[in-house]
Amino acid sequence: MSDRLRPLLLLAAGVIALLTVFASPAAAHSGEQSYVYFDIYDGRMAGRVEFVIRDLNQATGLDIPEDEAGATAAVEADLETIRTYATDHLSVGDESGTETWPVVFGDDFEIISLAAGSYVVVPFEVDHAFESVPGRFTVTWDGIIEAIPERDALLLIGNDWEAGVFNEEANQLLRFTSGNTTQVVDRDASFLKGFGTVIALGTEHIEIGTDHILFVLALVVPAVLVFTRGEGWRPTPSFGSGLWRVTKIATMFTLAHSVTLSLGGLGILELPPRPVETFIALSIALAAVHNFYPVFVNKEWVLAFLFGLAHGLGFAGVLNELGLGDNNRFWTLLGFNIGIELGQLVIIFLVFPVLFLLRRTRLYPAVLYGASAALALAALGWAGERALDLPERVNTVVDPVLAWPRAAWIVVLTGVFAAIYNRWEASRGLLRSNDDLLPGPAFQRHLPERHRADSEPEPDDDGPTGRTVELEPAG
């Protein structure tokens, strides 16, 4: 293995291991507890209470059935009783307990049917205008507990930007019992904590955003090659020139999706999700087909920018689903963008050295055209499913392969293989030179003049300085 690439692969393995350590499993509703959720936004507090139906019946004397249809009809008829009960048993105030803030339950409700039992969910608002929500406040809750002392209840913060909490469903903050029904909530809030969590959410979305990963891969696969006039693909002359090309791709993709992510996140540009997601899938297919029939010759960054606009709208949809748009909009958009960029860089950082090691071997034509064909087929499958609102069967094939961190470990192991294979071909004089053509489709040698590149790469394809640095034996 090249001495220059060994540290990169080791660092990549360390990054993967670190991210794996920080992954944590989520808990689930037990059917034995009620739940009080708080959502904290700029200057206001809201939340919801989730009652186990059988416990609510015992505490109030109601007869709400467990099935969803029956429960919905019964709760509609008895909603005022449920609201009054919840209001009488929930109190919110300042840390010292000297000031109480009114809690108002609305007319909405929801029935949740789980394996452990069915729940009635009733939302509330804290009727108090805060200049800034306090870092600590007091909550009293004895609902259900006063009627069934062996029961308890959990308090969770569902959303709180400054505490770095978004759509939290599992991690409890406090526990109410028959002997402890009044407790102080400590938000543990700060700007840096919230901003750091938003960055992490952006990175996480790239990790689980299979379509975005495949789009980046479709653009990176040819980045270690140069398309020459009327002939086809050749290996890029140096690590620096290829890396500079990848840098342009990532930068232009970031600039493009930043524009539409900001417009979507601010509510200025809103499009229905189905056509957006369908076009994102088509963008992957077009980027993959471009590897067979280059139109923007040696300028994949143009594709990254054009299609990145659509991907930004997809990111905006995720941002809105997470409820991130209600707080610190500017910092949310900035942090989410930074997270996405970091996620992209991790993918490129892992994949590019492997592709560079393979670019001059006899395997690379199969890598280029095989991967591009597979990407195009998967993307077209997605496009059909999304356009026609069909079950997502493509994901059942793609997601297990790209699941994090499994996919990253596969890349690392492939990198080790690539280094060994590169060394093996080099020892037998089988590596292509930088002037050798890769075998490919015949039509690439007959592209129209307007689609051809000059016989030499563009000056900036050799890096910002225009210098070529050769690596041995990989380069």
Global geometry: elongated
Distance between the termini: 13 Å
Number of domains: 2
Helix-strand topology string? HEEHHEEEEEEEEEHHEEHHHHHHH
Number of helices: 12
Q: Which radius of gyration do the C-alpha atoms yield?
A: 28 Å
How many strands, which pairing sense, and closed or not: the largest β-sheet? 7 strands, mixed
Multimeric status of the protein: single chain
Q: Return residue spans where pLDDT drops below 50 for at least 5 consecutive residues.
A: 1-5, 7-27, 449-475
Helix content: 40-55%
Task: Tally the beta strands.
Answer: 13
Mean pLDDT over the residues: 84
What fraction of residues sit in β-strands? Answer: 15-25%
Structural class: alpha+beta
Task: Please describe the structure with a list of short key phrases separated by commas or semicolons.
2 domains; seven-stranded mixed beta sheet; alpha+beta; disordered N terminus; 12 helices; single chain; 475 residues; four-stranded antiparallel beta sheet; 13 strands
Please describe the topology of this protein.
Layout: H1 6-21, E1 33-41, E2 44-52, H2 53-60, H3 68-89, E3 90-94, E4 100-101, E5 103-105, E6 110-114, E7 117-126, E8 136-141, E9 152-160, E10 174-176, E11 182-186, H4 191-208, H5 210-220, E12 225-228, E13 232-235, H6 239-265, H7 273-290, H8 300-321, H9 329-358, H10 364-388, H11 394-402, H12 406-427
Parallel strand pairs: 1-9
Antiparallel strand pairs: 1-2, 2-7, 3-4, 3-8, 5-7, 6-7, 8-11, 9-10, 12-13
